[in-house]
Amino acid sequence: MMETMCTPAELVDAFRANGLKITPQRHLLFELLHDNGEHPTAEALFTAASVRMPGISLRTVYQTLTDLSAMGELHQLAFDTGPAHFDPNVTDHHHVVCDVCGAIQDVYVDGTDHLTIEGAPDFRSDALSIVFRGTCASCAAT
Amino acid sequence: MMETMCTPAELVDAFRANGLKITPQRHLLFELLHDNGEHPTAEALFTAASVRMPGISLRTVYQTLTDLSAMGELHQLAFDTGPAHFDPNVTDHHHVVCDVCGAIQDVYVDGTDHLTIEGAPDFRSDALSIVFRGTCASCAAT
DNA sequence: CTCGTCGTTCGCACGAATTGTGAATTCGCA
DNA sequence: TGCGAATTCACAATTCGTGCGAACGACGAG
Questions:
Q1: Are strands B94-98 and B124-135 parallel, antiparallel or unpaired?
Q2: How many whole angstroms separate alpha carbon B119 and alpha carbon B11?
Q3: Nearest to A107 among B109, B118, B124 (CB)
Q4: Contact yes or no for B91/B127 (Cβ under 8 A)
Q5: Which nucleotides in chain D lie less than 7 Å from some protein C-beta?
Q6: Please, which residues bridge with residue A116 across strands?
Q7: B-chain residue closest to A84, CA distance
Q8: Which H or E run includes A28?
Q9: SS3 helix, strand, coil % of chain B, rounded to 5?
Q10: pLDDT at B1
């Protein structure tokens, strides 16, 4: 299985490399994000973090998520209105979103190299994000 | 040139068909949206509407945009944090977003039929949205 | 190990974007 | 024209996120 999420140790190194310090709060968040495919919101991470570290501030969660985003170790996702979702998977991938239950899932998409754009001459595309909306397997089963 | 935006007259019919009334405020917004490729925010539409109808309420703009979205005559776009953008083009298309100037442009994409999804078995995809991020022609020219 | 220096935490207040509420108004059918 | 239901709009509330600053704590130098 491909390694997709940064390990806490790697994030520690990345923070140190940027002159940032390692605090227990940050380390806890690194652990909560590691191999986390749930695309949590800041609130969700705050709730999870509060279990193991009561008193941690929502402000600190936002701060750390912002720092991780700034150094490219985390992607911030805005599918619609509502809170942002955070994705520790920084490999080249895309998302499916279930319109019924709202679940977000990482997917790998083949064929993107053959997409052709009509209507924006001379636009230099650096990145591509694809979102599939529909119904997930478990919601379709009901 | 393909007709991509609903005409005010069509929107009037759509509203009537749904039991909604036609007010001067709504009619003005229909006109402002017709053939509008600027992907305006609610605030931008409010500003534009205020020129021709001083006193119109931002609340009414939101209300009308929500109604249009609900009946599928308008798409609501959330590219990142910040205000939602509204797209009166309801044909099957996608978007390019310039990271420099923030401009949003409609594009038509070929090859989407050949995309294959790995990682979400049995997900039934109803809709697809693709966003290309990069640099637009005019920003690249600087 | 101790110290001093920044970076960090976190409560609070603020800000932006959007929605709830309800009284006054107005559309549109009869 | 008149009635009833939909609409407008000001105001307040909500949601999500950020600015600020005092107290705290990580960590390299000595």
A1: parallel
A2: 40
A3: B118
A4: no
A5: 6-11, 15-20, 25-28
A6: B110
A7: B81
A8: helix A24-33
A9: 35, 25, 40
A10: 53
Closest residue in chain A to residue B121, using alpha carbons only: A137
Q: Is A55:A80 a contact under the CB 8 Å cutoff?
A: no
Q: CA B65 → C1' C21, Å?
A: 19
pLDDT at residue B3 is higher than 90: no
Show the tokens assigned to B126: 């109803």
A19 touches chain B (CB under 8 A): no
Q: Please name the residues in contact with A16: beta carbons below 8 A apart, sequence gap of 6 or more.
A: A22
Which B positions 101-130 lie with beta carbon below 8 A of chain A?
105-112, 114-130
Scanning residues 83 through 142 of protein chain A, those with a beta carbon under 7 Å from any atom of strand C turn out to be: none
- CA pair distance A93, A109, nearest whole angstrom: 7
Is the full-model pTM beyond 0.85? yes
**Residue in this structure with the two tokens 């509502």, named with its chain if needed:** A82
Q: Are A50 and A66 in contact (CB under 8 A)?
A: no
Residue B65 and residue B74 in contact, taking contact as beta carbons nearer than 8 Å: yes
DSSP state of A114: G
> pLDDT (tens digit, 9 = 90+) per residue, A16-48?
999 999 999 999 999 999 999 999 999 999 999
